[in-house]
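Lecture 7 notes. Example A: sequence first, then its structure tokens.
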Amino acid sequence: MNSFIPATSIDGQAPPEATGDEIVRLVDVRRRFGGTPALDGISLTARRGEIVGIIGRSGAGKSTLIRCLNGLERADSGEIHIEGRDIARLSEQELQPLRRRIGMVFQHFNLLSAKTVEENIALPLKIEGVAKAERLQRARELLELVGLADKAKAYPAALSGGQKQRVGIARALAARPALLLSDEATSALDPETTRSILALLKDINRKLGLTILLITHEMEVVRSIADRVAVIDVGQIVEEGSVWSVFANPQTEITASLLGGIRPQLPEHIAARLSPTSGIEAILSVDLAGPAAQGALFAELSAALPRSFRLVHGGIDHIQNQPVARFFVGVPTRDPDLPAQVSDFLKARSARVEVLGYDN
């Protein structure tokens, strides 16, 4: 009964070999509104079966990017390749079959209240001209996939927010897209429902080999299911990499700020009393990832530099099966060389170390 098939290109053939497994390739994409650049040289790829998180604050350019990806907005310059075809060079008529290769999941569900759940899911196929029996069969398959097989005849008003989003996801999959765009799909949901929706997206990604681009302002969403993350700010990608490496070692202030809610932070009452120049104890932040986060680092530090220091705060997380750690260490300054010695010891073992200030 399962009729899900591997993604193919717009014309039913495999994507051109030149793109390999790339479903999305953006090259120097630019879009301005008046004198304001909304997208200012975006380059990005997403491969078949990959989940890529695109994260940024409000106004960073995320909405414009997603509208350019689905062809609702035209870029001023640059290339936007979907399955090997540059949509910037397609007419509106040529764009129509491509849009069927792209599924969209919205923040506010966008379900039609006067139609049943199965009718909402089947709607894209009805617009496409698929026979009623076939589109309802597809809707039933998708309802089973998203865990709502018993809700086919229900109306949206009878569903919870999480159930509505599951219907939205099923509708986005109706035409068997190669690419799923998730536009803040969990922002309107409570934390428990968010976790269930993210688990569903990951399950769909695994079962169907579907490429997913997550547009979000929530690092926790990226942390939960993405393979890679791109941080967008004022229309530019300022940082990109595997999720665990970006979380372990953010390179930009905006990334560190976005991570602030889910990485260990120095407690405010300690941070507030730090002096930038002197004190009886230097407070160091220590970031570690991979093998360096698994060893007996602080035992080795105590053996190499047998002086008193203390763990002030911190912890270890696991992201993409990689340990990612952040600790705050207090080092006495009665030996003025000791903070630098501790820092050098930790850096030699692949830690990123920063002196945050001095505590009295």
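Example B, a different protein, same format:
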Amino acid sequence: MNFLAHIYLSGDNDFIKIGNFMADSIKGDNYNKYQEHIKKGILLHRAIDSFTDLHPVFRKSKHRLHDRYGHYSGVIMDIFYDHFLAKNWLNYSKIPLEKYVFDFYQLLEQHFDILTVRIQKMFPSMVRENWLLSYASIDGIAKILYQMDYRTKFNSKMQYAVEELQLFYEDFEIEFTLFFKDIQKMAIEKMEND
């Protein structure tokens, strides 16, 4: 799962959202230096990643990309699944995506001082280019994939993955819907039990 799904799966607690969002930039047990709800968000992020990587539906989606993109296929699928979440947002939330995204950017701005340095550096570009809202369109996905390919010095070829998105669009969307039911259940249980 990519940024939008991680934030959404954090529920309504702002600090769990922040922890989940910045978890990739917190290594090992460094999460212990954060307050309780941020820690909970970081651990939720890790649980979501593990659950996703092992889920048979996600693996089926990812397998379609593996021959062409190798170990980048999982990263690409994370982005594709965020696309389907954004596209079908009103099936999952009563808050319009535009407002949800705007509120999240404001939340990060209000708590900028607790963000990791990596997230602080990334934040201006994220807001300026409105990454979270751009997931909703194929053009937005194409732009994100290009930027990610650029970061790999164009070794990943991720910019071309929009071809597979369009070719297998219905299959990916069906698989996302099945998968997302399971991951929502897992995230709720994790937050209730931790």
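Note on Example B: The two ends are 21 Å apart (CA to CA). The mean pLDDT is 94.
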